[in-house]
Amino acid sequence: MGSMIDWGTAVQTGSRLVRPGPQIPAEEAKAVVAELKELSALAQVHVREFTRMDVPPEPQPATVVDRPGWIKANVDGFRVVLEPLMDRLSKKRPGSGATGLVVDMVGSRVTGVQMGAILAYMASRVLGQYELFLPPDPSGRAPAGRLTLVAPNIVATEQELGVDPRDFRLWVCLHEETHRAQFTGVPWLRGYVQDQMTRFLLASDISPSDMLDRLKDAAEAVADAVRGGDSTLIDAIQTPEQREILDRLTAVMTLVEGHGDFVMDAVGPEVVPSVADIRSKFNHRRGGGSRLDKTIRRLLGIDLKMKQYAEGSRFVRRVHAEVGMDGFNKVWRSPATLPTMDEIADPSKWIARVAAPPAVEGEVLSLEKPSGTES
């Protein structure tokens, strides 16, 4: 069985559809790339000092890409995650004969085109990302991922918002470098996320008739999003087992996104003087866009991600205010100390379960604790 997605088609389609981004002279573009690399290394130092996470001390500069470069990097990452799964799934349902193969080839072109279209949409919005799943490094010295910044999108956003370019670039680097700290400083985190994703995808092994029902649900989700409802495609195509796994994945992603948002603003004032101005303009932009834009965001679950930033950073802020950075950092001890979605909504539950100080220190610490916890 061939791959379920023709990745070559996805890259070609995405690169063809994506808009080129702001036109700036070559010299200026080179300067932007150099500055982003320099600022990403600077951000790493700030993030390490502020978060007290166990991050390797020698800063690695970020990889700076254009929009087609981001599409290609993402497709490479998808392949790493999905190809082994496709093999396992095809072993589960062997031999659908020659017609199956033809359908499969046509289907993989269609999904390649769809995938390319989604990536083209995303590629003009993403400012940067920590790529967890890279193809294995042939030299064996593979980093645990790569930090990528999408230069044209950063420039387009700072122009659109009318903010100080250096401040904005450093601010974006602080968020992305926090992700690098999470995944390089917490040894088990990357494997945990990959394992949950694998389980999620393997749990989708359903019968053809169930699949038809799911597709109907998916069509309804599209219709609902167009009408302004909040169905997402992810919700429409899930088994009960997948819902449980998705809850765990959502919780960990909400934590890492919220932590990134908390750090970029908390480190901000000394390092990024105009941080308050940037944050208010940026939040306004996150919620904006045309009706079509909002519909696509809802369908792809990007709106969910925006909610995650808000809920996640509220959780981190509350925990940090009550038990300090060392108390918060207990979150990284093991998968068991990660917050559940319920605890993200009510941080005092997580504090009681994981971060509550032992009785001996209780008397000293209780003096610092604010009386009554507001949510």
UniProtKB/TrEMBL annotation:
The keyword Ubl conjugation is annotated on this UniProt entry: no
Superkingdom in the source lineage: Bacteria
Protein name: Zinc-dependent metalloprotease
Gene Ontology terms for molecular function: metallopeptidase activity
Keywords recorded for this protein, A-Z: Hydrolase, Metalloprotease, Protease
Species assigned in the record: Actinocorallia longicatena
One Pfam family per UniProt: Zincin_2
InterPro entries for the chain: CHP03883_F420-assoc, Zinicin_2, Zinicin_2_N
Signal peptide coordinates: none
